[in-house]
Amino acid sequence: MSVTIKQIAEMAGVHRSTVDKVLHNRPGVSDPVRRRVQKIIDECNYEANPIGKALKMQDKELRIKVILLEVDARSYLEKGIEEELKKYGSFQIELDYMTIPYSETEKQVRALRSCIGEKVQGVILSPINSPEIVKEIDACTLAGIPVVTVNTDIKGSQRLCFIGQDGFKAGRVAGRLMGEFLRGQGKIAVFTSDGDNHQSFPFGTREGGFRQIIAEAYPYIQVMDNIHTQEKSQVIRREMRKLCENEKKLSGIFITCGGVKAVGDVLEEYEREDIKLICYENYPEIIELLKKDIVTATLDSDIEEQGKKALEVLMDYLIYDRMPVRKHLYSEIKIMLKESI
């Protein structure tokens, strides 16, 4: 006869919630207690009954909070999440969407803090990179609310899993492409979302990977200081017009974030066909710019698939007690040129 969590708790002299924390590697348990409980789990060959739990979960309403940033990727993430939701028709799942303007840390803090009081079962989050957000993610985890980060990640938190692009690697790929397109010479402008500590992790690492490969392999290419946009079209258009008017020798633009259409519009306005533009994703407006030779190359990370995977990982955990296979589930980096459309 298989042992239960209740029996393990009785043998270890702890509460059932402590056994659950040990089983799922959650914080809040001292090392001696964790070792004692884990020893009993191993000796009893405990295995969870995922089918039994899934049947019980069908009678329980699951409330999932989806907290996304107001950026170009948001609608595509939502589309992927909604598509994945169709697979769970036998479960009572309520998705509570909330959109946070870029870099409004306090608003995202309040959104995460409310999850505990509202008895949310899980969170899908595109985090702002801030110590305050790390603290709230950890508070949710401690309260038994798993947090899956999607599209953007954050260092040092107890989130369950990150799903998105390996930003640093994608930045190096973009740098290699730019270096070859420019034949090792030229001047490049870099557009990023934010210039302060709120900058979302993958955007920062995209820039870091890009600058690293340029410095290593293309010493005659000059990379200018970042242009910070907070993904606001009016800011992007203003800064692009400044570049077109003041940087006559500009030969490349690298965009780590959204706002590609605004950049493309200004390039068309000034007829700057000489500038190589490298960006991310395969949004319809980017595909159109590829067809018109305004975007030279884009690196797609399959945003909709990220949304699908985020809900899948969270539901596997909530329904079947399955931990993700890795803490980082990276999406494929797909290089898209005009010829590949």
Task: Explain this structure.
The protein is an alpha/beta fold. It has 3 domains: 5-43, no CATH class; 61-164 and 303-331, Response regulator (Rossmann fold, 3-Layer(aba) Sandwich), CATH 3.40.50.2300; 167-300, Response regulator (Rossmann fold, 3-Layer(aba) Sandwich), CATH 3.40.50. Helices cover 46% and strands 19% of the residues. The protein has 13 helices and 12 strands. It has helices spanning 5-12, 16-23, 31-43, 50-57, 74-85, 105-117, 131-142, 167-181, 201-217, 233-246, 260-269, 284-291, 303-320, and strands at residues 61-69, 92-100, 122-125, 147-150, 161-164, 186-192, 221-228, 252-255, 276-280, 297-300, 328-330, 334-336. The strands form 2 sheets. Strands 2-1-3-4-5-11 form a 6-stranded parallel sheet, with helices on both faces. It has a 6-stranded mixed sheet with strand order 7-6-8-9-10-12, sandwiched between helices. The N and C termini lie far apart (58 Å).
